[in-house]
Design brief:
An 8-stranded parallel β-sheet has the order 7-6-5-4-3-2-1-8. α3 packs parallel to α4 (111-126). By secondary structure, it is of the alpha/beta class. It has helices spanning 17-27, 39-51, 77-91, 111-126, 139-148, 160-166, 173-176, 207-215, 230-233, 238-257; strands at residues 5-8, 31-35, 55-60, 95-98, 130-134, 154-159, 180-184, 223-225.
Length: 259
């Protein structure tokens, strides 16, 4: 049996929520993720997922000013992360994907930031939500997190595209693969900082390496596309783009599982 394949909500424009979810369900994508919406919108998406037999797998936490979490004044960043946990409960999504920092020169790891992330992890555990920290540009931040939090409520989200464009030559799965709970799959030019979010096999990332890495791990979860880039795919209709996304996901799945 083929493992689950997923795709982010509204990877392509031009469809309503229901049209989009009906389309991906018709392609046999079994799961989705999204960012945080209003409570009403989050509930509506969850209801549509139930209608079309889709799993609402994760929510991506806000990260627009994530570096503030390490500073004396976090400008409400911790509140936004905790609100994402609440939205996970509302949507029936068991995992919140969280960034630890942003950019090439984030603040240093600080005691106040450690304390805030501890409060987030504790709050999520109370709500039975897993926090999945995602690899970005800085190894030190995510290494700190997995040393600080050893419970089953803190896991790893491997973003293979980020690995190729943000930290070329640095491999995260050998370090944290035993904590892997979800994936973000996309392609790019493999040029530093070019986080293009192409469909797999449309850029320069080494998907032979991605497939080998996943195949040699104990991970049996979904392969979740995080794709878009309308300037690259503007000539495709929404339906054509989503079919191309499905074909790319199936191709990668076959490489990983040999089915």
């Amino acid at each position: 049996m083929m493992r689950k394949l997923g795709i982010n909500l509204h990877a392509v424009k031009g469809l309503t929520d229901e049209e989009y979810l009906r389309e991906i369900a018709g392609l046999r994508f079994p799961s989705i993720f999204s960012g945080v919406r209003t409570p009403e919108h989050q509930t509506a998406i969850a209801e549509l997922c139930a209608k079309y037999g889709l799993e609402y797998e994760t929510l991506h936490a806000p990260f627009g000013h994530i570096n503030d979490i390490w500073l004396e004044n976090d400008n409400g960043m911790l509140d936004e992360l905790c609100a994402c946990v609440d939205h996970c409960v509302l949507a029936g999504a068991p995992i919140a994907v969280v960034h630890l920092s942003a950019g090439q020169k984030p603040p240093s790891i600080t005691d106040i930031g450690r304390e805030r992330f501890t409060r987030l992890v504790d709050y999520a555990a109370e709500k039975n939500i897993v926090i999945a920290f995602e690899n970005q540009r800085k190894l030190a931040n995510i290494a700190w997190a997995f040393e600080a939090f050893t419970t089953d409520t803190v896991k790893f989200c491997w973003d293979c595209g980020h690995e190729f464009c943000f930290t070329p030559g640095r491999h995260y799965m050998p370090l944290f693969g035993d904590r892997l709970i979800c994936t973000h799959i996309h392609d790019n030019t493999a040029v530093f900082n070019d986080d293009s979010h192409f469909l797999p096999f449309d850029g320069a990332c080494d998907f032979g390496y991605v497939a080998d890495t996943l195949r040699n791990s104990n991970y049996t979860g979904s392969l979740m596309l995080e794709v878009g880039n309308p300037s690259r795919y503007g000539e495709l209709s929404p339906q054509e783009f989503l079919k191309k996304a499905w074909d790319a996901a199936v191709r990668l799945c076959t490489m990983v599982d040999g089915e």
